[in-house]
Give the backbone structure.
Amino acid sequence: MLALRLPPEIEDGLGALARRTGRSKDDHACGAILRHLENLENLAAVEQRLAAVQGGESDPVPVKDLLSRYGAAD
C-alpha cells in the first residue's frame, strides 16, 4: 500500500478524470506511475546504448534503419 498526499489541484484533476472516465483515481494514478517507470527504464536503456556507442563498444544505427525496422518509414 502506498499513501500519497497530493496538492489540491492534482487531487481535483484526478477526481475529475475519474468521473469522466468511470475509472477510479487509483487506476489512473497506478497507470501514470507505471508509465513513468517504463519511461525511466527506457531512458536508462537509451543512455546505456549511447555510452556504448560513444565508447566505441557498439556501432550507431542510422535513423532511417530504425524507422524502417519499426514500420515508420515513408
